[in-house]
Amino acid sequence: MLLTSIFNTLSDMPARTILHIDMNAFFASVEQQADPALRGKPIAVVGGGGRTVITTSYEARAKGVKTGMAIWEGKRVCPELIIVVGDSRKYTYTSGKINEIFRDYTPEVEAFSIDESWLDVTHSLGIFDSAVTIAHLIKTRIRHSFGITCSIGIAPNKLLAKLASDMQKPDGLTIIAPEDISRVMERLPIKDLCGIGKKTQRHLNMMSIYTCGELGRCDEARLTRKFGIVGARLKEMGQGIDRSPVVPFGEEDEVKSVGHSRTLEQDIDNPAEIRRFLLQLSEMVGSRARRYNVSGRTIHLYVRYADFFSSWGKQTTLKNHVNLSDEIYKAALSILATVELEQPVRLLGVTLSNLKHQTEQLPLFEDERKKLFVAQAMDKINDRFGRMAVTFGSLLPGKESAGSRVIPPSWRPDGIGN
Question: Could you say which of 12, 20, 94, 104 would form a disulfide bridge with 165 (CB–CB 3.0 to 4.6 Å)?
Fold first, then answer.
């Protein structure tokens, strides 16, 4: 009965062919191609800060080094490990060019992260014969143009395509056909599904659910009692069902908030240093808000302390909508002034919400117009020459250490971070 139910559900869904493309050891592979002396050697790419974890090459993984380790852990496992400080410009440039290749085969390309994308090739099959043909063409072009490899999953939806791309690495090509879904999902550990993290896995294990087959057979009411409205979605995931479309850049849902957070390179308790980081975060939030052409009334400040486990978040709602950096900064400072910090600070975050879309009308008063024109001029210069090419004077000393060169999950090839 269950297999019949799943089959009927899948039969009612529009037939789609989705590719998920995952670049293999992307950061390390780019660095090895940029420097031939690194090829074939165990390397780890790190950020520029004191607090950083490593991303590894396959040569390093073969020696027991794992992505996510601290530098000292990697060196302990593999003393000959070569540490390379990453250059985000190389990765964003390469990722952008690779996504241009994808768009030669379909306009429906959704960048999931800097090294992963989904492609809906349903309407391209009449031109390129088959999804397998498209996958081989993409693999060949990436290898020829950049000297790096990718793993590709082909399936009827995004969830299964991503699952398939993880099954054979590196340089793999895996197909999950509709008739194979039930067999693949039956014994698959729930942790292998994109969207089920450690916390959800732990709760499901407490319900004696360990495999996707068990999740797909679980009573929906029982899941809903535990997880709320997410319960129905979890049951579908266990059955390999995913109705979410591939969403190209620019067609996403309307932005609901704009935020930035930073893990600091050192724990700080100096009020002046904390204010300096808040100013930088406020400028980043304001710049994005102006690019999105939105302003907001609610500013949220988030602080995590040095012990990592202690944190707090508070917000304030203003009378007027704002998107100028100094106004966001002043609101964040007003929140900070209401709290006595208990420990040195490890992480700071600023978010602007309660948004509305701006009109093109200029402010009424001259001083407000001047502030807007200055902000717009700064945005244009930074768009052309890089973030913080022009910034507030108080951010200039040591500005390289003020920011993070980590590429955020929100990065997109056509986005404002590029």
Answer: 20
**CATH number assigned to the domain comprising residue 339:** 3.30.1490.100
3-state secondary structure of 171: coil
Question: What's the confidence (pLDDT) of residue 393?
Answer: 55
Query: Of 31, 108, 116, 327, which is the active-site residue?
Result: 116
**Does the residue 299 lie in any domain?**
yes
Q: Residue 199 class from Cβ within 10 Å (0-12 exposed, 13-18 middle, 19+ buried)? A: exposed
**How confident is the model at residue 375, as a pLDDT?**
60
- Are residues 177 and 145 in contact, defined by beta-carbon separation less than 8 angstroms? no
Host domain of residue 393: 258-402
- Whether 116 sits among the annotated catalytic residues: the reply is yes
Q: Is residue 210 part of a domain?
A: no
pTM: 0.71
Question: Within a domain: residue 415?
Answer: no
Q: What angle do CA 132, 135, 139 make, to 5 degrees?
A: 140
The answer to whether position 335 is within a domain reads yes
The number of folded domains in the chain is: 1
115-129, 152-166, 388-402: lowest mean pLDDT where?
388-402
The candidate with the shortest Cα–Cα distance to 27, out of 409, 407, 403, is: 407
